[in-house]
Amino acid sequence: MDGVLAAGGLTSIGVDFIDPALEASVLQTLAEVEGELRTGVESADPFVTEAARHLVEAGGKRFRPLLVALGAHFGDPRAPLVVPAAVVMELTHLATLYHDDVMDEAPVRRGAPSANSRWTNSVAILVGDYLFARAADIAADLGTEAVRLQARTFARLVHGQIAETVGPRAGDDPVVHYLDVISEKTGSLIATSARFGGMFGRAEQVHIEALAGYGETIGVAFQLSDDLLDIASDALQSGKTPGTDLREGVPTLPVLYALAADDADAASVRLREILSAGPVTDDDLHAEALGLLRESPALKRARETVRTYAEDARARLAPLPDNSARRAMESLCDFIADRTG
């Protein structure tokens, strides 16, 4: 979804707003964030401004600002620092995307040429660094605690990326390693987004902690559900060609479960044989592996894992008041649990 989210856009990413007033308030916050993002990346150098705006203008779900906006509804959603806090989170996220595209050698991001393919890897890395700096600059206006939290979140992101790059060490459980990577790379920033919403909406401390716990867990659940969609859905539902991760050799949760299984039936043995050879680039083998994965106990187990995380996220909302914002966040748990079957 490009640019500012429209009223139906929030529902399409899994949040169901029963309360029109809440939806209007969240949309207002997101519209303000959108304007501040464009202002926030401006530079005295027109080239830097163009490159920094590249992904801002490509749009996106704005999931992290959305959680800031929802978290603020447990206090004062119109408190003056809510929008800057959301901008800090989205700029930090966008900075990681510039770096990710270099590491993944990605040619496209959000339907547009990636920064590294449009310019160079060096430019993309430096623009990512610039966005981190801009996020830190804005965070300084939020206070010392916000700067510290953003820095610690960034450290977790980097730890997660290093762990993913290095891979599990000898004796490590690949599944545990993979879940830890997702917690660090994805869950950490979503957790801080929900925390910032509570903090800068001036919510009670117990509510802020509950929001952070919810954010971390729902972030992991959302990433895991994307892994399943890559295998189980058609291109229209997932937005990309099914089995892309499989073709690129990305070891997602269903693949890791399949490789770790000791099932002796012919289908499981054949699936392990294909997957253990690395990236499945041959079209016939790819189609065979995708079919076997869709019918495998590994996919069923991965679905159960997603549901476990989604229900854990719901449980972490228990300390929060039973208001429309909490119900909207609970609807996201239902969406994630249901979207993968």
Descriptive report:
The chain is an all-alpha fold and 341 residues long. It has a domain at 7-203: Farnesyl Diphosphate Synthase, CATH 1.10.600.10. 73% of the residues lie in helices and 1% in strands. The protein contains 17 helices and two strands. It has a two-stranded antiparallel sheet. β1 (108-109) and β2 (112-113) form a beta hairpin. α5 (82-104) packs antiparallel against α9, α13 (253-260) packs across α16 (297-315) and α14 crosses α15. The model is unreliable at 1-8 and 235-239 (pLDDT under 50).
Structural class: mainly alpha
Radius of gyration from the alpha-carbon trace, in angstroms: 20 Å
CATH architecture of one domain: Orthogonal Bundle
Principal-axis shape: globular
- Could you name the CATH class of one domain? Mainly Alpha
Number of strands: 2
- The residue-averaged pLDDT reads 87
Keywords: Magnesium, Metal-binding, Transferase
Family: Belongs to the FPP/GGPP synthase family.
Protein name: Geranylgeranyl pyrophosphate synthase
InterPro entries: Isoprenoid_synthase_dom_sf, Polyprenyl_synt, Polyprenyl_synt_CS
What key phrases describe this protein's structure?
341 residues; mainly alpha; Farnesyl Diphosphate Synthase; two-stranded antiparallel ribbon; 2 strands; globular; disordered N terminus
